[in-house]
Amino acid sequence: MLWRNPRLSGVASRLARAASTTTTSSADANRAVLQRLAQATDHELSLMAQAIDAGTVARIQALLPATTVAVPPPSKAQLRQVMVRSMVPFIGFGFVDNFILIIAGDYIDTTLGVSLGISTMAAAGIGNTISDVAGIGLGGVIEDCAARMGLADPKLLKEQLDMRVTRVAHYTGCTIGVVIGCMLGMAPLLFLETKEDLQAKATLDVAH
């Protein structure tokens, strides 16, 4: 008998340990694959959905819980944090956009506008182009500065991020931020001289 033969008993023990180690390694490998799957992008999930067979899908569904836990909506505090984190970067975007637009548009209006007869609206359009290009270059800087401010993280689940109330809070924060930033970006209007001011000053100089 097997239990009466020490040699066979030792072999059986080693085989059992090897099988246990193999099972553990296989489980760890499967866990790693599932963790990677949880981090897959929508594009990767679409590719896998096209390649996977119905049998594999059925086996996965059989392993999943029969019921899913309902995800609660974000709290009011979390929604406020979403609004603030969305608002702050757009204050910077709005400020930079309007500030550069006004400075560049005024410079073009008072130089090329006078010498070449470019209209004020054309100068504003060129200034807007310059501010948009500058916004592309400064976008990353503004986002980095906002990230360094240490704003509270709402710590939302993926399902909560996809909820309508969260999206409304996000876009509300973006809108408020842009409005505040654009209003602050109009500060150069307090000290800039318009083309009409320069023409009036030139007329007074000629009169004197």
TrEMBL record:
Location of the protein in the cell: Membrane
The protein's name: Transmembrane protein 65
This protein's GO CC annotations: membrane; mitochondrion
Keywords: Membrane, Transmembrane, Transmembrane helix
Topological relation to the membrane, as annotated: Multi-pass membrane protein
Ranges annotated as spanning the membrane: 88-108, 168-192
Pfam families in alphabetical order: TMEM65 (PF10507)
